[in-house]
Design goal:
single chain; mainly alpha; Methane Monooxygenase Hydroxylase, Chain G, domain 1; two-stranded antiparallel ribbon; 2 strands; about 60% helix; globular; iron; EC 1.13.11.11
Length: about 375
């Protein structure tokens, strides 16, 4: 019988002997068995398996987006795989609840045997961060060394190669920059958008001024908070303003990519933009879920260890909480919400462009 069609057993297919023999309790080896160490090991092994799956998905998505011209038929596949990553991260957050069935006293029974091992030494998680596009400049370190210094040279090289070959952030930025609809014939999107923004702000300013519920002091404060087109809207209305924000580290996406992301968000209801919009939403979901996981992890550490130092030498809870606040990747996509205007105020698209953004069978 051909090996291709030979039978296989569940046990051997999943290599269960290797997997189920991989829980070697250090407390047992040292002659002081701690019951809860089994849970601790399995939780972290499960995380590593899920990280492997995330890497598998990201590698396939990066392969699609690293081309000079992305095959639009692949966008749906990329959206589905990003959605899968989101579901895995949701599970990662929920998994912490299982860890918290172990009490702080139970953890202390074997924690002393773990030094200097630490979750910071998870190479696969560092790969996930790098592949998504976490900027090396934005990384917090818990020592004076480079974040990758805890890994052997071959793994350090893998991480360096990820940044060198281009991350998902880089690939999506390049894809956005090639959006063809920003300047279409006589339609100047930014000119039309600026006019709509001015009208929206004037309407809101007038509503504040005529309000009978606000004091004069409150009106002045709200008008100042509302701002005008010279405030954050300048990040898309002025290339120079965008460049200044980028130079100060307040923005990462290029000007063209930011304008494209805004266009996709505003005209998301156009058929051709459904999947691009979902792709951007999935990227924001992943970023948000990673932040949720970091925050939840930090809270668990505070519950388990209080203010104790981490086994790897970090400040423990304080360090983890700081990474949750700083280690964001797709912040610029979230910030697009600042630039949105009401759907009713959207500039009308030329009929010829509307046809381009529609499915073929709906054009007649």
């Amino acid at each position: 019988m051909s090996k291709k069609y030979s039978t296989i057993h569940y046990h051997s297919y999943l290599k269960l002997d290797k997997i189920l023999e991989a829980q070697q309790l250090r407390s047992v080896e040292l002659g002081e068995p701690a019951h809860e160490e089994m849970l601790f090991i399995i939780i972290h092994q499960a995380y590593e398996l899920w990280f492997k799956q995330i890497i598998h998905e990201l590698q396939s998505i990066l392969k699609m987006f690293r081309e000079d011209s992305v095959d639009e038929r692949n966008i749906g596949t990329a959206v589905a795989r990003l959605g899968r990553i989101s579901e895995i991260l949701k599970l990662a957050v929920q998994q912490i609840r299982i860890m918290e069935t172990m009490t702080p006293l139970d953890f202390l029974d074997f924690r002393g045997y773990l030094f200097p091992a630490s979750g910071f030494q998870s190479f696969q998680f560092r790969m996930v961060e790098a592949m998504l596009g976490l900027s090396e400049q934005d990384r917090l370190t818990y020592s004076s060394g480079h974040y990758a210094s805890v890994f052997p040279e071959d793994q350090q090289q893998v991480l360096a190669d990820i940044y060198r070959s281009g991350t998902l952030f880089d690939a999506v930025e390049s894809w956005l920059e090639r959006t063809p609809f920003i300047n279409y014939g006589e339609f100047d999107f930014l000119k039309q958008y600026e006019q709509a923004v001015r009208q929206m702000i004037e309407k809101e300013q007038e509503a504040i001024k005529v309000s009978v519920y606000l004091t004069e002091k409150e009106k002045i404060m709200r008008l100042a908070m509302l701002g005008n087109t010279d405030t954050y809207f300048q990040s898309v209305l002025s290339k120079d303003a965008h460049a200044a924000l980028k130079a100060n580290g307040k923005l990462r996406l290029s000007y063209d990519a930011t304008v494209a992301a805004l266009f996709i968000n505003l005209y998301r209801d156009e058929p051709i933009l459904h999947l691009p919009f979902r792709l951007l939403v999935n990227l924001m979901d992943i970023d948000e879920l990673l932040t949720s996981w970091r925050q939840r992890h930090a809270q668990m550490v505070l519950r388990m260890l209080g203010r104790k130092m981490g086994t790897g030498g970090s400040s423990g809870h304080e360090y983890l909480q700081a990474t949750a606040a700083k280690h964001h990747i797709f912040t610029d996509l979230h910030s697009v919400s600042t630039l949105l205007i009401p759907r009713s105020a959207l500039p009308a698209l030329p009929e010829s462009l509307t046809k381009q953004l529609s499915f073929y069978f709906t054009q007649n």
